[in-house]
Amino acid sequence: MYLLNKTMGLVLLILSIGFQTVTAQQINDGDRPNIIFIMADDLGYGDLGAYGQELIQTPNIDALANAGMKFSQAYAGGPVCTSSRSVLMTGLHNGHTVARDNVPHYPSYLQEGDVTLAQVLKNAGYSTGGVGKWSLGDAQMEGRATNMGFDTWTGYLNQDHAHYYYPSYLDHDDRKILLSDNPILRNNYSHDILTNATLNFIRENSKKPFFFYSAYTVPHFSAPEEDEHGLTVPSTYPYTDKDWPEAAKKYAAMIYRLDKDVGKIVKLINELGIRENTLIIFTSDNGGHSNAWKGFKTNGKLKGYKRDLYEGGIRVPFIASWPGVIPAGQQSDEVIGFQDMMPTFAGLSNASIPENIDGVSVVEALKGNALPENNRVLYWDFGHTRQRYDQAVRIGDWKGIRRGQGQPIEIYDLAGDVSEQHNLANAHPELVNKIDKLMQMMVIPSPRYPVGQVYKGGPIWKKDW
Fold first, then answer.
1. CATH architecture, domain 387-441
2. Per residue in 59-112, pLDDT tens?
3. I need a labelling partner for 439 at 20 to 30 A (CA). Which of 32, 288, 378, 463 fits?
4. Which residues cross the membrane (predicted)?
């Protein structure tokens, strides 16, 4: 990770250099694994049995954790959908990546010349596919998935389209899959289509190295006109008879379907005989939503929710399984983030990566080892064009948060206060000053995200039914 003097001259210099490449040679070509990256949408840190959930059953995801490793300190790229996906795809943190918030709405966030994780692996000879919510470029735009390294993509290119689980169409590569009268008849639940597309891709590409990105949309809320609780699901099974609010049953049923389909993916790669050479990662794009039933404790002991820069908004479940390489049944307390996936996967695939990315390889952490000591700084921000602009920095076990421009910085020692209950700013003025400077230095200003100018626009995508 690099620190940048916040001057426009340096910004322009950096932007003019462009991306050069370096090659990560960590394993032999014959040992390159398939990589399946499964990401839920708005699934909280505490929503899985492996992370302490007691009411919602997630046996297949828990089995994946038992067969591999769960990370206790894994961070999403941002506290909302678009920024988190952008960090994952570009290897650049929230202050550098091209898409930094869900608003303003743009038809394309990624531009020609941006380098994505999918492009890195495709250039290394991998087949690349994905399903679900893309968010980084609409149909026909330069930032669409199939123009950014994916051989195929099925789902929602636009994130507002993804608010409908019974849509009239889904995007598929450069065309549409028409689902006539689906909003009325409700014959095709989109999550089921995404799983079928995932399984088909794995079958068709099982004889060669592949990367697959399952960006599932459950349990993200749906459009209110589609479901009175904003949680569209075909059935509340197996929680129909629970003495819970109806919305809670629906939320749990969405996670049930997600867990069941993770089981289908694992079952298929076992049947195809490729399990020993397949890395599977399961995670979430940000913290759980504040609307989730409080009985579930969606974010466990963590403070805050989606859209917050407290731990509940950005710390996510992260499970990695690769038989024979990743130790089974272990927990890693190493600090990792979505920006680390690009250099990590490049190291596993002998791929070339852009210089000046913020991520670092965490291959050693996947193997159960400690990462080398470093002075790494993790950075997030949110609300550039909203009513309040927030920033957060983590250095070692220290976390600094500023909730609004000009507001005091809060300081927390995450080693002993993961719930962020004890603000230690008054006891550490020198640390407050250091984090204040870092909050200025870690951001390359973007004309697309003018801080303090409240966005007045609305979604670009409009439903056609």
1. 2-Layer Sandwich (3.30)
2. 999 999 999 999 999 999 999 999 999 999 999 999 999 999 999 999 999 999
3. 288
4. none
